[in-house]
Specification:
heterodimer, A: mainly alpha, Rna Polymerase Sigma Factor, Chain: A, Arc Repressor Mutant, subunit A, about 0% strand, elongated, B: mainly alpha
């Protein structure tokens, strides 16, 4: 069951983006696995097996989501409704200040953070938590790109996103995670 | 002919496009020009790079046991009719 173990979590997340609950996402993933097993003879190797499998999940989840008549629009899954929470407009000078758009106070520099703290278990836990709280599409894109190391092309294919949308989602996700990480590391360094 | 340089806020907003090499050459040059003279944006850019590096250290969580069992169950259900001639 290596194949299942490797892909189950990622498939659940893809499904979860289109349907109303985790339980429904689980149903979709089960159906998708059956689709994979039944259809594997027809897999022509034009894409990677993973891309092909994740497309099956995305397609099944989309159909299911439509059937559920889900009212949540893409914009809310993507977090487009809110301004980018990772960047605070107050960091920058206003139009009537001396240098509009320039830093008011310089960002905190992480070069003094020791490596074992930056990559420590507790820091990683914070990052994981920060990703969990992102809007679903942002969370999915940052997981695939930065945790699993997929290329932007693979992510666009699997999630049916344009290059631009994919980049906007990644930018917002990374910016929010950076902000959380900055708060966490800064609090830790003040304790010392 | 002089053009207005990018502001810090503008640079921060297009950093991912810069990382992903998605900026037109001219825009990329303006970002680099700005970074060369701005300690604040250079520090921020480094924290973004570090964020990507730290995120890359996370591992996918394990699939919870009960889901795995449900899945095995689904496979068994599916293969049963196929095995009878």
């Amino acid at each position: 069951m290596m194949l299942v173990e490797q892909h189950q979590a990622a498939m659940l997340r893809i499904a979860r983006m289109y349907v109303s609950s985790y339980a429904v996402a689980e149903e979709v993933v089960q159906e998708a696995w059956l689709g994979v097993v039944k259809g594997v003879d027809r897999f022509e190797g034009r894409s990677s097996l993973r891309t092909w499998m994740y497309r099956i999940v995305a397609n099944k989840a989309k159909t299911k989501g439509a059937a559920e008549r889900r009212s949540l629009p893409f914009s809310s899954l993507a977090g487009e409704d809110e301004p980018n929470p990772g960047v605070d407009a107050a960091w920058f000078q206003d139009a009537d200040d001396q240098a509009p758009g320039a830093w008011r106070t310089l960002p905190w520099d992480w070069t003094g953070v020791p490596e074992d703290r930056l990559l420590g278990t507790e820091t990683l836990r914070q990052v994981g938590r920060a990703i969990e709280t992102l809007p679903p599409m942002q969370a999915q894109v940052i997981r695939l790109r930065d945790v699993l190391g997929w290329s932007s092309e693979e992510v666009c294919n699997a999630l049916d996103l344009s290059e631009t949308n994919q980049r906007v989602l990644l930018h917002r996700a990374r910016t929010s995670v950076r902000r959380e990480l900055d708060d966490y590391l800064r609090a830790g360094s003040e304790d010392r | 002919m002089s053009e207005r340089g990018l502001t810090c806020h503008e640079v921060i907003d297009i950093l991912t496009e810069y990382f992903e090499d998605a900026l037109p050459a001219e825009e990329r040059r303006r970002v680099e020009e700005h970074l060369a003279g701005c300690d604040g944006c250079t520090a921020y850019l480094e924290t973004m790079r570090e964020t990507v590096r730290v995120t890359g250290m996370l591992t996918e969580e394990q699939i919870p046991v009960e889901q795995k069992e449900q899945l095995l169950e689904a496979f068994r259900d599916w293969t049963r009719p196929e095995t009878s001639p």
